[in-house]
Each structure stands twice: as structure tokens, then as C-alpha cells.
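Hey, I was hoping to borrow your eyes for a little while. I'm sending you its amino acid sequence along with the C-alpha cells. Take your time with it, there's no hurry, and the full record follows here.
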Amino acid sequence: MTDPMYRQIADDLREQIESGQLRPGQQLQTEIELREHYNASRNTVRDAIKWLTALGLVETRLGQGIFVVTRIDPFVTTLTRTEGEVAEGSQSISNLSKVRDRLKPASVCLRVEIQGAPEHVAIPLGIAPGTEVISRHEQRHVDRTPYSLQTSFYPVKFADDGADRLRSSRYIEGGTVRYLRERLGIKQAGYRDVITVRVPNAIEADFFKVDCRSAMFEIFRVAFDGNGNPMRLTVTVLPANRNQLVVNVGDVPDPRSATQKS
């Protein structure tokens, strides 16, 4: 049985993509040109493009055309920590694929602000809306590639009690978790992550250089001290097309060791 015309067109284009004749990032012919080339109707060509889009081989960019998808070797972020590890103020990149093992993460603290806590910050921290908090906002890169945007919120009382470096935009050596433990004796005992997926706002779309319809991971991490009191809220935003999130439960091997054995 002969495949329908749209599948024949899709298969021909897929063969060109897989063979390298059509390269990642390359623009396909226009819809009119494809119709003329394959002697097909508009709906048939559109169905072929929909099929290739569903396979993740092409993407339509509004006002620009149809492009071969550029494959991204994703950053792999392990959200969980094994016992004894220090969980810092962010979800650090603990595993990268074998291609990216050589890459180095870096972050820039853009600004530190003291502000009244909005409701979505106050509730996780267990404080009244409007209570002053310190926010520390960072842009994070891996080898100059935008990786994540992160904002951590701390009760301003921590700085008043002696952890005054929270007010500084300079990097805190060893991370804020260690700093709070050493300075105030506040030990982080655990944290809870809530992960949602949404589209980016204008600032995020500009920073990550993504389309306004792209999917973003948003991680709300609330950290708790030994008495069960919330001590920090960290909000991390990552583009879904260049990140994978890993959660380990129990005694599991490092995935890199499995790669090295194969």
C-alpha cells in the first residue's frame, strides 16, 4: 500500500535532514516552493510539515519560515543530593553529558535588593506579605551559553543578626548555605522543590534568546532548617530545550560511570 502524499514528502525531507543535505538550522524552501517542487496541494505540504514537526525535525519560526531543528546537547541538572553533600542556594550542574564534561558553569550576581515580600514569596517563607526580604538575583551561564536565571530570597533578619554579606552583590565563597551555617548556626536540613512549566516573560526570552512560545522550567525551592522553619526560597528558571532535570531516589550509580563502561 502506497503511503499518502504528505508522508512521501515528509519522508523525502527527513531523508535529506538525516543525510546532512539539509543541515541543522538551515531554512527549508517556502511553502509555495515546496508545493511546486512536489506538485502537491497546500494542505498536503502543510500536513508533511506538521508530521516533521511532530517528529522534532523541523520548527516553524513566526514570520521567518521553516527551519531544521538544531540538536542541543542538554545540560543535566541533578536536583537531589546524597547524604552529606552541601545543598547550595541553587540547583548546581552536577552531571553533564560526556560531550560537555569539560564545560565550566559560571554565574554573575546582577543585583541585590531589599524589598517587601510579595505574597508568592512570603507564603513559602512563612512570613507576612510586606515583610522585608533580601533578594539575590543571578544570571547563570555554561561556557557563555545562558543556562538559568535564579533569584534567592532570605529574611532580612539574617543580615541584621550578623549575616551582613547577604546584602552584598559579591559572590559568597562556599555558598550561602555554608555561610549561614558558619555565621548564624542556621543549618539547612532539607528542601522541597515544586516544578512547573510555562512560557517565558519578555526578560527571560531576551536573555535565553528563545521564542515567546518556548517552554520553561520554573523551580520553586524552599529550604528548611533543623526545626522545620523555612530559611530560603530560590526560584530558578531554565529553558526546557537545553536542560534535563534528574531526581535520584535511593542508591543509584553515577550515569557517567555507566557511560565510561560502555
Notes: The longest strand covers residues 105-116.
